[in-house]
């Protein structure tokens, strides 16, 4: 079983992948600690078949100019090290009450200078009541939101259908590659598989932080997605990631209603 991807640069190429979410930019957040580690991460990604990787540091940890300068320098160092992988800029922006103002001022770093913006929620907080309003505020100013690592949010782990109102409003949903193998816990694994099975998740990315733990690999996760939802859909997901970095509109298929997680009550006598 193989996942096939076509890119605009290589019309008949197979399995040239992109990774939309990584913390490969060195020394700016909780990702790569230094240049050597960043280069090791890029080498791992290239060996996995990733042709382009987005550096998406947490926006609260770094300025837009630091991201742009850091990406340019990392590309130079990667080329000097004999790597062919391309790094493009991005950021991971926390969805908070001040997001509308931040989106309106035009200083958020989008993925590869496209309209796509990677957004995240708190992994420990509740599903925010202002979420749809914040999403709409981004769309009004021409941004196309992507919800990062949806399967890791407790509300989605309880009910993956929580993402459907976002999908209906044009939000793309991303899941982490390692969640499909249980590395973020069984609840996250179940939620990731259910989101993919129901076609309520559209993108797989690594959210890489290190070269050894949480590495920048996506190929095995796409193969797992093929086992869960079929090879055709896994191939569509891989191509959707390519289209995002091209700035092309992505039209997801109609999702099925995801199942809620069953709760078991244990009785002790």
TrEMBL record:
<comment type="similarity">
    <text>Belongs to the metallo-dependent hydrolases superfamily. CpsB/CapC family.</text>
</comment>
<dbReference type="Pfam" id="PF19567">
    <property type="entry name" value="CpsB_CapC"/>
</dbReference>
<dbReference type="GO" id="GO:0004725">
    <property type="term" value="F:protein tyrosine phosphatase activity"/>
</dbReference>
<dbReference type="InterPro" id="IPR016195">
    <property type="entry name" value="Pol/histidinol_Pase-like"/>
</dbReference>
<dbReference type="GO" id="GO:0030145">
    <property type="term" value="F:manganese ion binding"/>
</dbReference>
<protein>
    <recommendedName>
        <fullName>protein-tyrosine-phosphatase</fullName>
        <ecNumber>3.1.3.48</ecNumber>
    </recommendedName>
</protein>
<dbReference type="InterPro" id="IPR016667">
    <property type="entry name" value="Caps_polysacc_synth_CpsB/CapC"/>
</dbReference>
<keyword id="KW-0378">Hydrolase</keyword>
